[in-house]
Design goal:
The complex is a heterodimer of chains A (412) and B (154).
Chain A: E1 6-9, E2 15-18, H1 22-27, E3 34-47, E4 63-73, E5 78-89, E6 97-109, E7 112-120, H2 151-154, E8 156-167, E9 173-182, E10 198-216, E11 222-239, H3 241-250, E12 260-279, E13 282-297, E14 306-320, E15 325-335, E16 355-366, E17 371-382, E18 400-411
Antiparallel strand pairs in A: 1-2, 2-3, 3-4, 3-18, 4-5, 5-6, 6-7, 7-8, 8-9, 9-10, 10-11, 11-12, 12-13, 13-14, 14-15, 15-16, 16-17, 17-18
Chain B: H1 3-21, E1 38-42, E2 50-51, H2 53-60, E3 74-75, E4 77-78, H3 83-91, H4 97-109, E5 118-119, H5 122-131, E6 135-140, E7 149-153
Parallel strand pairs in B: 2-7, 3-6, 4-5
Antiparallel strand pairs in B: 1-6, 1-7
């Protein structure tokens, strides 16, 4: 017993440090209750071709996610909490424990609250909980908007945010968030693995700002909205002395080239429009997104300036067949270049590198409120989101391929 | 006896049988209450006697955190074993049990909050409402609110 309360599963099924007797809770005003929650997910995946999210061609069980968080309501208006998260997804994560989010939350009014700290990035319908398997049907959210490859940049921002919710009487209601701060990207994250004699030394974010606005329509279960993110990233690379000397000898770099160079991702603008309808046992959602940015190299001869305008969208349908069983499907599309959807330009080594079209079928079985299983199959056309294992061997990637996953999750 | 007269006598006999089954002898024209009927209750110090469904939904999903007078809202619910819980979720929160579970998983694991307490007895819900000035709860319709104020849902 600590401070007159005990740690036990509350009647709601969530582990809490709280009085078990509601009357006792009403009379004890000296200690705020502390809620502890967490989850562990373990999965496996296999692809018919292309190593996607790890060594999928040979099959992999490097697919674990786990988190634990603590939250407490200090006063009626003030909350604080933090969550630790770890992941192993092929070469990504490798069980490194990270601070997923940690922030103070002051809700001055329903229509205006303030958060400060490390805050999950609001982007689209599902980004803030894209790592929470129990919060959705598919194992893989549509990668067109919720790309695991780009997860590091959309995970969370460190800074401040304002948020609120207000009813509009007969017109439904509004939910909004706006934030400003920075994004921390770990250069050692394997999602940023670089091939060849080049190392990524660090990633600098000058700023990150954006917001989200959703309209809760009068029709129950319908909401429409949009999200926007603007940021600027600098990737600092270095190469060994021998490679630097060779580059100087070819004339591709200036004679004073010291082996270091920077990719400046400027004017990063990400936007997504969203619609979701949840009625009874049905869920229908669709999102359309554009990712636009410029890439400028400090040594232009190494890589000329690139302007990127990527087009991404999906539509998803899910149905709860029974209390325990849910099934659904989605069709997700990525065009790496909205102006070259067929990949005919020289920018793409193979045309199928310009797009990735993903037809997925998912099933979810809830054993009980705390334990679930999922099974999922994808038919892929294109390889835009596949990290090229060997840029010099263009025969490595297959245009049409399948990807299969199974996963189990326990929450508490 | 004509066919119509036989039908008429048969109907009279059936009606008489129904009346005989009722202890007060009156024919019932009121639908029997369902096990999952519910009533919304608040602390007796709360002057509200009717609440909109939108407001109650906001309270339980924690989008609305304060009453008009600034008093903090303290929602409380019943545990899963009560039929009224699911009906309340579907009719007031516009969510199926699985949608409600997903909603709270989303809130919990993004740090936005935790669900209202869900208690194992009607008496516990009543005690919670009586001890929190800003509380709002719900009970099976057949349960005596024992001092808590029942409010109409608009």
């Amino acid at each position: 017993m600590v401070g007159g309360v005990s740690l036990a599963h509350s009647r709601s099924g969530h582990a809490q440090i709280a009085p078990e007797d509601p009357q006792e809770a009403a009379e004890d005003t000296s200690l705020p209750s502390i809620a502890i929650h967490g989850f562990v997910s373990q999965g496996a995946f296999l692809s018919t071709d292309n190593d996607y999210l790890g060594h999928s061609e040979r099959g992999s069980v490097e697919f674990l996610e786990a988190a634990v968080n603590v939250q407490t309501q200090l006063t009626d208006k003030l909350r604080v909490g933090a969550q630790l998260f770890t992941r192993d997804l092929g070469p990504i994560g490798n069980y490194a424990m990270v601070l997923d989010w940690a922030y103070l939350d002051y809700r001055w009014r329903d229509w205006l609250g303030l958060r400060a700290g490390r805050i999950k990035m609001p982007f689209g319908l599902y980004n803030e909980f894209a790592d929470v398997d129990a919060a959705r049907l598919p194992i893989l959210l549509p990668q067109s908007v919720y790309s695991i490859v780009d997860r590091d940049f959309l995970l969370a921002q460190t800074g401040t945010a304002i948020y609120g919710s207000t009813p509009l009487t007969v017109a439904g209601g509004i939910d909004y968030q706006a934030f400003g701060g920075t994004v921390f990207v770990d250069a050692n994250s394997s999602a940023l693995v670089v091939n060849g004699p080049v190392e990524l030394d660090s990633v600098d974010t000058k700023y990150a700002a954006g917001g989200q606005l959703f309209w809760r329509a009068p029709l129950p279960g319908l909401r429409l909205g949009g999200s926007y993110l603007r940021t600027n990233l600098d990737f600092h690379f270095s190469t060994d002395a021998a490679t630097a000397a060779a580059l100087v000898a070819t004339g591709m770099v200036p004679p004073d080239f010291d082996g270091t160079f920077t990719y400046d991702y400027r004017n990063i603008n990400l936007a997504v429009g969203s619609v979701e309808l949840a009625r009874g046992d049905w869920l229908l959602s669709a999102e359309y997104s554009r990712w636009m940015f410029d890439v400028v190299n400090s040594v232009p001869m190494l890589l000329p300036e690139i302007e990127v305008d990527s087009e991404r969208f999906y539509g998803m349908l899910a149905y709860r067949l029974t209390d325990q069983l849910e099934a659904g499907t989605y069709y997700s599309v990525v065009f790496a270049d909205a102006g070259d959807r067929d990949g005919k330009s020289d920018r793409f080594t193979e045309s199928h590198r310009a797009y990735q079209k993903d037809l997925a079928v998912s099933t979810r079985f809830d054993v009980n409120d705390f334990w679930l299983w999922k099974l999922e199959a994808h038919y892929m056309d294109g390889t835009a989101e596949v990290l090229d294992p060997d840029p010099m061997d263009h025969d490595d990637l297959a245009r049409h391929w399948g990807f299969f996953l199974v996963k189990t999750t326990v929450t508490f | 006896m004509t066919g119509a007269a036989r039908i008429g006598m048969l109907m009279s006999l059936l009606l008489a049988a129904q009346l005989a089954d009722r202890p007060d002898g009156h024919a019932s024209t009121v639908r029997e209450a369902r096990d999952d009927d519910f009533r919304v209750i608040v602390n007796p110090a709360n002057r509200a006697r009717a609440l909109s469904r939108g407001f109650v939904r906001g309270a339980y999903l924690k989008k609305a955190t304060a009453w008009d007078d600034g008093e903090a809202i303290h929602p409380v619910g019943l545990s899963k074993r009560f039929a009224a819980r699911e009906r309340f979720a579907r009719e007031v929160l516009n969510k199926t049990p699985s949608q409600l579970r997903a909603y709270w998983n989303q809130q919990i694991f993004s740090g936005k909050g935790v669900p209202p307490p869900e208690l194992d007895s009607e008496a516990a819900v009543i005690a919670y409402v009586l001890h929190h000035r800003g509380a709002v709860g719900y009970l099976p319709a057949s349960v005596d609110p024992a001092g808590a104020a029942v409010v109409a849902l608009e």
